[in-house]
Predict the 3D structure of the following.
Amino acid sequence: MRLWSLHPSFLDKQGILGVWREGLLAQKVLIGKTQAYVNHPQLIRFKKTSDPLLYIGTYLYFIYVEGSKRGYKFDVKKILKYDPKIDKIEVTIGQLYFEYAHLLKKLEKRDPEKYKEDQKRDPQSHPLFRVVKGDVEPWEKSKDAKAFRNPYKLVFS
């Protein structure tokens, strides 16, 4: 499961379809409709909020908006609740750049045109997130994250 911190506009077709599907799965996990993924690290930041279901729903809402711009027929009724004006969740700049590098590696292989386009852009966060200083998030369990973490504890600006 990957619930990208990056703005959905960075995702290719496979990425946006995948995050929609995985976001809906995360919503099921948070309401207790599945035994799978209940301790998945990608859910930690949502579980730490005052209303995890509202936050995952709002996350999905912005995926829905991007999908609609591209002509995808995501069903907004599948989102149990959302509020586009909700207080944002913090994400570190280190996490954002880690995910950006991770996505670019994927795009280089599966969508070279999107890779060229995204490579020219500075990473931006998903609208639910507010970027703060810091390293890769401690909940990030990807094996590549260990190599990407800042061993000198420099503060990203």
Observations:
- The first helix runs from residue 13 to 30.
- Residues 32 and 38 are 8 Å apart (CA to CA).
